[in-house]
Write a structure and sequence with these properties.
35% helix; single chain; alpha+beta; flat; two-stranded antiparallel sheet; 4 helices
């Protein structure tokens, strides 16, 4: 147990800020930047046709997802199905100490 006299000078003072002020004003978070970039047009090689095309970034992302599905990559297939069909729900039944059964429904599946 530390001696209280030794830690007195390290204690927080009333009204003292412990953490910084957070993100500076005017700095956008990552999702905002990505949403803005999603509408920008970029020229890339179409992963399906192989031709150079100019499309919005979100369209390129969708086509890359389709390419992954066509390549039979399970990560892309899972992502495609989650986005088009919704994530599969998992139900777990739990018995507590009073022998009553409760059902818990988990949306979002299990981690990879």
């Amino acid at each position: 147990m530390p001696n209280p006299k030794n830690i007195e000078k390290y204690k927080w003072k009333p009204g003292q800020k412990v953490k910084g002020a957070g993100r500076p004003k005017g700095v956008l978070n990552t999702s905002t930047v990505l949403k803005k970039l999603g509408d920008e047009k970029f020229e890339w090689k179409d992963p399906v046709s192989g031709k150079m095309v100019k499309r919005a970034l979100r369209d390129h992302a969708a086509w890359a997802l389709v390419k992954g599905v066509l390549d039979r990559d399970i990560k892309f297939i899972r992502e495609y199905l989650d986005r088009t069909e919704g994530k599969a729900a998992q139900q777990i039944q739990v018995t507590n100490s009073e022998d009553s059964v409760q059902t818990i429904r988990i949306i979002g599946g299990l981690p990879d």
